[in-house]
Amino acid sequence: MRDRHLRAAIALVALAGAAAAAYLVYARYTHTQIACTTGGCETVQHSKYAKIAGVPVAVLGLAAYFAILATALSARVEAAALGAAIALGGLAFAIYLIVIQVAVIDAICQWCLASDAILAVLAVLTVERLRRLAGNPHESSGAARMATRG
Amino acid sequence: MIASTLEMVPSMSRFFHGRNLLYVGVGSAAAVIAVVLILVSVIGSSSAETTGSVPVTTTTGSGSSTPAAHPKAPGATATAALFRGIPQQLNQLGNPKAKVTMIEFADPQCPYCRQYELDTLPAIVREYVRTGKVKLIYFGIPIIGQNSEAGLRAVYAAGLQNRLWNFSHLLYRSQGAENSGWITDDLLRRIGDSIPGFDTARMMADRQSSDVENALAASAQQATNGRVDRTPTFFAGPTGGTLQQVPLTALTAAAFRPTLDALVK
After folding, report:
1. Can you give the pTM of this predicted structure?
2. I need a labelling partner for B215 at 20 to 30 A (CA). Which of A106, A150, B139, B142 fits?
3. A19 CA to chain B: closest CA distance, Å?
């Protein structure tokens, strides 16, 4: 798979993640009841863990997906590295939130789980892209520059 | 050109060293992102337990005061265990598609409601709700006095976070004498802080919300429709069908079983 294919895949998956996060942001600010089969979405979204420093986690997720999308628009290895860092960091935080849902809040938010799954896919794709670019600098001028500097 | 330049680089190991450095940098950046987010979340969630609270102050001889942490409300662990894993939606407890619905009209100041809540509800939850046969619906009506409404507002505000049943149960566990003013803001905050993951500050603010006003009005209307003039009063029947008042001779689980067993058959 060439870099542009991986970038297209990352962009598409990031858009899917942004859509899920945007739905939760919309529901939060319009006080719309979240479509939920697990019965726990509202409970999780209204818990004290639903905000980080006053910012809803869904807003942070939306920002992260757009940031990853932006990195997919660039062919530079630095962009691939940034995308992988955001996806991996986000995935680690998502795992923490799953533990909180199960062990503390006692409720599962299916939209959050969907977002977590998307983040896991993004982590795989962004790391693979980084691995290819770093291993094959011909695909990226940025990678080539790094290699020649290295 | 670039490729030929690379071929001329004398040490390929330097290139691989650079790649490894890149991986380490990405891993470190990811770890920093995750650690910062988790730390802010942990600190924020623990401070949320205290920022919404009136600090309990201890005055020293010199006149200075220091805030003290809220102790947990009585029965916090048992209450969490009682409702753990059971779906809650506003004033509803249990499987939304349960075959049978039982409604309770209650007042947080009512001693018989407390008796039912502590002695009988756990058995009903274990036998009928946790098994998905029966769902419970709570309607709070302020029959005893003005302090009842203060409690009900908090109970319904907890319902907006789908924790009405935990909150109501903990409130009964701390019940004081009727109209003695025992339902204080401090007690409500302490109860909120005893529910895992609960946003106490939000509950305190939501007490005056239109959602809570509507819930109080709906409960009063339901009580009028059912000609309810005392608490606790129970109605049961097929979900979506007509509910009948549960004939009770005592507030024991045994007194509920004939009605519920007949309905869940």
Report:
1. 0.74
2. A106
3. 22
